[in-house]
Specification:
Elements: E1 3-7, H1 14-27, E2 32-36, H2 42-52, H3 60-84, E3 88-92, H4 95-105, H5 111-122, E4 129-134, H6 137-143, H7 157-173, E5 177-181, H8 186-201
Parallel strand pairs: 1-3, 1-4, 2-3, 4-5
Helix pairs in contact: 1-8, 2-3, 3-5, 4-5, 4-7
Length: 206
């Protein structure tokens, strides 16, 4: 069954759109599972706590490897079995986040090495459709002004602008990625997403 991933910087509306999509799937009696990255398993959630802890000083390469380790565990423990059972999988972030954040944002390693690590961590699993919700850094800051930043969200303007440019480069080079303006009204974005799924997978849902 299809694997869908949602990408975008913090404040782009991923969680909102995933919730709306889950309601749509349920309305159409379609079995699905949702996982966030990093997370989704006991080990992966423990790694998530380390990665987002503002008290942790994590080496950029160690950060990259921790994200990849959490992903590898999620793939083998949850995603691959669920796909074999015929469930749709919805991911709140996947390996494009690693490419954007650690590849473009941190510039930890050459992109080719990032791609190789992503392939290793995912067992070469690639989303059938990736929704990239694009917003500017200023919009992200405004939407998150009342929220407490975690370690990743504390990266600053330059860091996030590199991430945004990385995401846009990925979207322009990968046919599976659909680039959506996340500054639009929530209902409009949801309608665009459902239409993409209907067209991509030829489903007859309402």
């Amino acid at each position: 069954m299809p694997l869908l991933s949602f990408e975008g910087i913090d404040g782009s509306g991923k969680s909102t759109q995933i919730d709306l999509l889950c309601n749509w799937f349920a309305k159409n009696d379609t079995p699905y599972l949702v996982f966030r990255e990093p997370g989704g398993t006991s080990l992966s959630e423990s790694i998530r706590s380390l990665l987002l802890d503002t008290n942790q000083q994590i080496n950029p390469v160690a950060e990259l490897l921790l994200f990849s380790a959490a992903r590898a565990q999620l793939i083998t423990e949850k995603i691959e079995p669920a796909l074999k059972e015929g469930k749709w999988i919805i991911l709140d972030r996947f390996f494009d986040s690693t490419t954007a954040y650690q590849g473009y944002g941190r510039a930890v390693l050459p992109l080719e090495q990032i791609h190789q690590l992503n392939a290793l961590a995912t067992n070469n699993l690639v989303p059938d459709l990736t929704i990239y919700l694009d917003i500017d850094y200023t919009v992200s800051i405004d939407r998150r002004k009342n929220a407490e930043n975690d370690r990743m969200e504390s990266g600053g303007k330059t860091f996030y602008e590199k991430i945004i440019q990385g995401y846009r480069t990925i979207a322009n080079s990968e046919p599976r990625v659909r680039h959506l303006d996340a500054s639009k009204e929530t209902d409009i974005i949801h309608k665009d997403i459902t239409q993409l799924i209907i067209e991509k997978f030829s489903v007859k849902w309402v």
